[in-house]
Design brief:
Blueprint: E1 3-8, H1 19-28, E2 33-36, H2 45-55, E3 58-69, E4 72-79, H3 86-112, H4 119-125, H5 133-142, H6 149-157, E5 170-171, H7 172-181, E6 185-188, H8 200-205, E7 210-214, H9 220-233, E8 236-239, E9 259-260, H10 262-273
Parallel strand pairs: 1-2, 2-3, 3-5, 6-7, 7-8
Antiparallel strand pairs: 1-9, 3-4, 4-6
Helix pairs in contact: 1-2, 5-6
The structure holds adenosine monophosphate, fe (iii) ion (2 copies) and zinc ion.
Length: 274
């Protein structure tokens, strides 16, 4: 039975490899399928599908929705959504614009802190149109102000840091509903990094179908806990590497965290029953 990595970022958000390069890597890792889950966009899916046909790697279309639940950022993975759904497309466009405006404000703050960084420096480096803090972190490092992205987050752009600016996020329940209405499967991403276990039953009532049990930020205890929750509520168990970049410290490489292909078959049967 083949292995699948269901959580992968590309240059269409804050990953450093293009969809083509990511799929090529998946092929070399002998993966049967890859879930392309860029932050707040499905625009990289088409390129991934072209590469998928070339390399014989099945592409599971997805995205990672940054949502807000009472001031906490919760990530919801949405698999198999229709890219033609007008409501979802509109809200993702609003998020994209908000990310751009927020980058403008963050650069202003960074400049006031004395760093010689312009918006154009960031725009030069990006390939897609989803601007994220990692893009700004990369420029901060390129210009020699920090040695690592982690340091840039700690000193300047992490929450509560001097150049941090909030941005628009969709409410978690609304996001789940939008994914369902777009024919997709909503999955709670990396629950182990939040403190929202008691919220899971109401997320399920709201339409949540799955939970990401296998993720680089989950230790053995977290995996055990979320497996139990998945069994208790009959949730789909997913997993993936959350691959962004080959150079970020201890982050795992693409395909180093996988689930069996049966997960894809289960997703398809959930989709049919929707
Ligand atoms: P944004 O969506 O623009 O607010 O940026 C959030 C993204 O930044 C996350 O998805 C991670 O990829 C990355 N990130 C968050 N915290 C850190 C950190 N401390 N060090 C490096 N990258 C981070
Ligand atoms: Fe990211
Ligand atoms: Fe995430
Ligand atoms: Zn991710």
């Amino acid at each position: 039975m083949g292995k699948v990595d269901l959580h992968v970022h590309t240059t269409f958000s804050d990953g450093t490899l293009s969809p083509y390069e990511v799929v090529e890597k998946g092929y070399f890792k002998k993966l049967a399928a890859l879930g392309i889950t860029d932050h707040d966009t499905m625009q990289g899916i088409a390129d991934a599908e072209v590469a998928g046909r070339k390399f014989g790697v099945e592409i599971i279309p997805g995205f990672e929705f940054s949502t807000d639940y009472e001031g906490n950022e919760l990530h919801i993975l949405g698999y198999y959504c229709s890219q033609d759904n007008v409501n979802l497309a509109e809200i993702l466009n609003t998020v994209k614009v908000s990310r751009f405006e927020r980058m403008v404000s963050m650069v202003e703050k960074i400049k006031k802190l004395g760093l010689n960084i312009e918006l154009s420096d960031i725009l030069k480096t990006i390939k897609g149109d989803i601007l994220g803090r990692p893009h700004l972190a990369a420029v901060i490092c390129q210009k020699g102000y920090c040695k690592s992205s982690r340091e840039a987050f700690q000193k300047f752009i992490g929450k509560d840091c001097p150049a941090y600016v909030e941005r628009f996020k969709v409410n978690t329940f609304e996001a789940i509903d939008m994914i369902v209405k777009a024919g997709g499967i909503p999955v709670l991403a990396h629950p182990g990094i939040y403190d929202v276990d008691e919220l899971i039953p109401s997320l399920i009532k709201g339409g949540l179908s799955g939970i990401e049990v296998f993720h680089p930020d989950h230790d053995i205890n977290a995996i055990f806990r979320y497996k139990e929750i998945a069994f208790k509520y009959d949730l789909l168990i997913t997993g993936g590497s959350d691959f962004h970049d080959e150079e970020i410290g201890s982050a795992p490489l693409l395909g180093n965290i996988t689930v069996d292909y049966t997960c894809v078959e289960k997703m398809r049967s959930i989709k049919k029953s929707l």
